[in-house]
């Protein structure tokens, strides 16, 4: 489960908001089930996108309802001019969405396009994994080999391949 909160910092509080965002994501990273806590921010912008990924909807809810998060939100309200968007996503559409003011009102691409791009992006990773990693792990127990594949594949897809592919194919999507 992924949730994105987009904020616009007050003009004179951008550096403080950046520090707040780092602290808030570090706090979220300590919560059970946290897969990633990230801040997306361009240096020439007042906009900050705080991305939280949790293993389950319940674990995300635990973070969202926590007193720790509430403390961070109270502080953010002093530094932010406004909260510009809030988005919750599950499944493949998370790979095909970059938070922004314009994108906040846009729909994800059609499912067939997401499927096609995912297939084209996954195939080279699977091929490389089979060629180079599988032979090195042949002596490992089945459970360990089986666990390694989704960890490598999903991490590569989420943090390397899909951000690049969706940026390159944005107009088509």
From TrEMBL:
InterPro entries in UniProt: ABM_dom, ABM_predict, Dimeric_a/b-barrel
Lineage: Bacteria, Bacillati, Actinomycetota, Actinomycetes, Pseudonocardiales
Keyword Transcription: no
Residues in the signal sequence: none
Regions crossing the membrane: 115-135, 147-169
A GO MF term: monooxygenase activity
Full protein name: Antibiotic biosynthesis monooxygenase
Lineage top rank: taxon: Bacteria
Domain ABM, residue spans: 6-72
Gene3D superfamilies noted in UniProt: 3.30.70.100
Keywords (A to Z) from UniProt: Membrane, Monooxygenase, Oxidoreductase, Transmembrane, Transmembrane helix
């Amino acid at each position: 489960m992924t949730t994105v909160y987009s904020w616009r910092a007050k003009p004179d509080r951008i550096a403080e908001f950046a520090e707040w965002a780092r602290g808030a994501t570090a706090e979220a990273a300590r919560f059970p089930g946290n897969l990633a806590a990230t801040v997306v921010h361009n240096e020439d912008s007042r906009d900050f996108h705080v991305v939280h990924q949790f293993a389950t909807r319940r674990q995300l809810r635990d973070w969202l309802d926590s007193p720790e998060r509430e403390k961070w939100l109270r502080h953010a309200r002093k530094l932010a001019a406004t909260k510009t968007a809030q988005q919750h996503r599950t499944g493949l559409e998370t790979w095909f969405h970059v938070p922004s003011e314009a994108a906040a009102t846009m729909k994800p691409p059609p499912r067939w396009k997401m499927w096609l791009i995912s297939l084209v992006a996954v195939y080279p990773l699977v091929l490389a994994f089979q060629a180079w990693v599988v032979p090195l792990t042949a002596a490992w127990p089945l459970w360990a080999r089986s666990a390694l594949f989704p960890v490598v594949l999903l991490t590569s897809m989420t943090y390397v391949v899909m951000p690049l592919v969706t940026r390159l194919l944005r107009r088509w999507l």
